[in-house]
Amino acid sequence: MAKKSDYFGLSWIVSLILAIIPFTSWICGAITRFMEGKIVAGILRLLLGWGIIWIMDLIFMITKKEICRLLPC
Questions:
Q1: What is the number of H-type helices and E-type strands within the chain?
Q2: What pTM value is reported for the model?
Q3: How far apart are the C-alpha atoms of 45 and 41, rounded to whole Å?
């Protein structure tokens, strides 16, 4: 069975495709953080999800197969 990735437990390829599109990366990243119970991280993603966080998400998704987590706790 394939290893699940960050966005809603989807496969890595599907998550990578969603991460490439800026709007879906922004929404899926925020929803993922809210689902993890990280309210502050989800709000930060909603406010600052464009630009540098999107680029970081792409780099992390390609290298680590997970989104960038600025606030791990």
A1: 4, 0
A2: 0.78
A3: 6
